[in-house]
Design a protein that fits this description.
ribosomal protein, about 0% strand, flat, mainly alpha, Ribosomal_bS21_sf, single chain, Small ribosomal subunit protein bS21, about 70 residues, Ribosomal_bS21_CS
Length: about 70
Amino acid sequence: MQIIVRDNNVDQALRALKKKLQREGVYREMKLRQHYEKPSERRARERAAAVSRARKADRKRAERDK
């Protein structure tokens, strides 16, 4: 990953770096890796996330069909 600092504006470059890290999911992964997660807990979390995504897609589809 590379961030270009323009006109010695480090604050703007830092903001761009944080945005890229957020988009890549680095912060989420760091949070998940702070503590060990049992495989069964991981499967349950991923399954819950999949259900949530499916419900959201259904809601959006229902809104679009109205």
